[in-house]
Structure formats: structure tokens, C-alpha cells
Amino acid sequence: MESSVCPFCHLSVPSSELQWHANSHFEDEDKEANGMELGNQIQIASSSGFTDVFCISSLIGLQTRSNFYHVKDGLISLLRNCLELEARHSSSVTILSGYVDHFQSLPSVDVGWGCGWRNIQMLSSHLLAHRKEARKVLFGESGFVPDIAFLQRWLEIAWESGFDPPGAQHFNCKIYGTNHRIGTTECASLFRSFGLRARVVDFGPKESELLYLSVPGSTLGQPVKQRNAVRVSGPMDKYVHRQQGLNKGRHFCHSLHNGKSDYSKGKSEGPQVLIDWVWNYFSDKGLTISGSSQVVVSDRAPLYFQHDGHSRTIIGIQVKHQKNGTNQFNLLILDPSDGTVALERSLKTNVGWQKLIKRGVHTLKKPQYQLCYIDPGIASREELNELKTINSIFFEL
């Protein structure tokens, strides 16, 4: 599908939708406002104890576009070129998500705590570029990715609307203007509040299963039983709150995927379980590993990738077929800690990009990981109510 760059926000969109996208920038000419006015609106909404239509409308009108370094040719396009060149000298298959902007953490702005918000921005840039239904609901149809302050307010609105009550309780429903770290549950809550089907997946050791959101071993079509568990919530769930000794509730579900998909295939040990899940996610059962060298762009959205202390965005996966008959997998990631200019330079020169983007199985040394992914479509009213409870599916590493 041919794409074109919007002359106003520099976002790459399908050419057939460029006119619609460009016109959306003129629907409200008063969207630019200063931070002081936003702060006043936040105080009004907070003191009232609830969020009404007027407050949301004000937020839509006030929100500003996040500043980021725009890569003219697009990072995914540059990465694909490098992978295709690499594939000439090795037998490999690579699956990439579509267009993604890289949002890096900035000194004096969010270094040390903002990675979660930056990953949300990366996912948002993809959704706005590739999913028309998402553009119609995300951020009041603004058509752009808001800065962190406005994402924080949107998360507060999600909490005020009843999404993830335990997480909201942990933060006392207030996160705007703070440097609190967030994780997959906050990512899922924010996107779910717009009707998007954000899902959470846990990976970890069997002995830690009680710290997870889900029932271990639950798979598509298999009813699961509720069980007593250590109650956790908030940013990075068990990573942070286990140490803090918090006691907050979570609930369980019968099936994460609602009959639409199943990524439980694969019986490998350790981190390979996570690798297999990511491969199955991006290939969606529609691509088989073969001996031919190729780079494929999937319609799957990137993955929010969380581990203890940091989070990144998975934009694809590569498998190389070794001469001894084994397969070597590499996750392809964008890290908010990396500089966008350095990423662009390494990809344009085809020098050093592997160290920045590739992560093999041997690098997955953390005992626990979480992923957040977004299924296509918009939830119905009934489903939206169910999405207010954050749950996950568990895989043993």
C-alpha cells in the first residue's frame, strides 16, 4: 500500500486517506493552548471528583502534539532496507510492524521515568497511521500523538471512568504532572478507555505465578478456575509492588482472546517461550518459516515490552536459519533510551543498527516480562465495560 507524508504533522498515512487525514487538522483551530490553562482545567476536574463531557471537551481542545525528531523516510522503511540487504547473505525471515515513530526520552524532561509514556506514544503513532477506526477514537480525533502531560490526563480520565480500579487506587487517581513510572496495566487502561482491545500477557517462573494477573496455563477455549493470589496492581505490577508490599485486588477471566486468536503455541524452555509467542503474534499463523530470505510487513501493531526497571517497544522479529539446522531468533526493538538521530544515522549508513535494534534470546536475562498488545477493532458498549477489569494470560518461562 502506497503511503504519503502529511504536510502538517509529517505522519506517514495511506495515500488514499491523506486528504481525510490532512483535513482533520483543521476541524478545531483552537487546539493549541498553554500549559497553565491545562493545569487550571485539571484542577477543576480533580476537585469535582468526576470527569464530565465539558472537561473532556476542554482537554481535547487544549492538548498539544508531542515534540519528537521526525525521520523523513520512516524508521521502519529504513530498517526494512537494512534487513533486506542483510538477508542477501543469510537465510532468514523477518516480520515487521508497519510505520512507527520513535519517541526518545529527553534530558530534563523524562529521563529515568518516562519510558512507559514514550512506548505508549510509539504505539499511538502506529495506530494513528494504520488503523482508521483507532484515529476516530484516539485523543478526541486529534490525529496526532499528545505529549506526556496530556497522556497523563487521559489516563486519569480512564481511571475516573472506572478502568483498572486497583491501579487507580494505587495512584490515588492522580498522575498528571508527576514523574511516576507506569507499566503495561496503565498502557492497557489508557487504550481501553478509547475502546481499543489492549491485552496483557505475563511471562515468568512457575514459582512466581501467584504474583501474576492471570491464571497460569489458561488457554483459548479452556475454562479456568479462580484462585487466591497475592494481590498486585499499578506500574509494572509485581516488579514494583512486590517489593512495596501493597495489597490491591485483581480479577481473572475465562479467556483473554475471546475466541479470536491463540498465541500459546510452542514448547520451548525459558526465554524462548516469549520469543515463540512474539513470532506467533506477528505471523498470526499466516507465515511459515522457510529457507527463503524475505522481509514481511505484518498488519500487527507493535508490542509494549516491560521488564523490571524499563520498557521498550517490539516492532518485529527475525529468524535466521543456521547451517546446523537450528533457528536463531532476534527481537527487533525501539528503545526510548536511544537517540532517534543515532538510530536514523545507523540505519541510513547500515552501520551499527544491529546493536541498537536486535535482541537475541541470550539477552533475555530477566526472570519476568510483560507484554501489552492491541487487537483490531473497537469494543462494543458491553465489551467496553468488561475491559475495565485488567487481566492477563500467563506463560511459564
From TrEMBL:
InterPro entries: UFSP1/2_DUB_cat. Residues 92-372 form the UFSP1/2/DUB catalytic domain. Keywords: Hydrolase. Gene3D superfamilies: 3.90.70.130. One of its GO terms (molecular function) is ubiquitin-like protein peptidase activity. It holds the Pfam family Peptidase_C78. Transmembrane segments: none annotated. This is UFSP1/2/DUB catalytic domain-containing protein.
